[in-house]
């Protein structure tokens, strides 16, 4: 298997692990109870934790520039924040809880979109690799 393929797969694995840690182990009630209120610090803290952990992937794929790192951080923060906010809007407006099928569709879609974001992040790192 080519080295770049191994690095890309490792980077995706690191991002999946990072996502699990930030979304499920480090997320507090302050964060998840307030992500649906636009501009609430709880949502900012949550997205910030994701951004703070993303540099772990740089141990696998070294970014070519500090400008790229900044763009990735800013983009990930904005995208993660809005994905979570939108999922909260959909579930709350429909009155869905963990007992409703729609809640699980919304959660699954939320997780899928986060994963696709990570694929785009890895693609950007690979495309600009030296």
Summed up:
By secondary structure, this protein is mainly alpha-helical. It has helices at 3-25, 29-32, 41-53, 66-93, 101-127. It has one domain.
Kindly report the oligomeric state of this protein: single chain
Helical proportion? Answer: over 70%
* Low-pLDDT ranges: none
Please give the number of β-strands.
Answer: 0
Distance between the termini: 20 Å
**Global mean pLDDT:** 95
What number of structural domains do the residues give?
Answer: 1
> Which percent range describes the beta-strand content?
under 5%
Number of helices: 5
Shape: elongated
Biggest β-sheet: count, sense, barrel? none
The Cα radius of gyration reads: 16 Å
Pairing-aware structural class of the strands and helices?
A: mainly alpha
User: Element order, helices and strands?
Assistant: HHHHH
Explain how this protein is built.
By secondary structure, the protein is mostly helical. It has one domain (3-127). Helix content is 73%, strand content 0%. It has 5 helices and no strands. It has helices spanning 3-25, 29-32, 41-53, 66-93, 101-127. Helix 1 (3-25) runs antiparallel to helix 3 (41-53), helix 1 packs antiparallel against helix 5 and helix 3 crosses helix 4. It is elongated and about 50 Å long. The two termini are 20 Å apart. The mean pLDDT is 95.
Produce the secondary structure layout.
Layout: H1 3-25, H2 29-32, H3 41-53, H4 66-93, H5 101-127
List keywords for this structure.
130 residues; mainly alpha; elongated
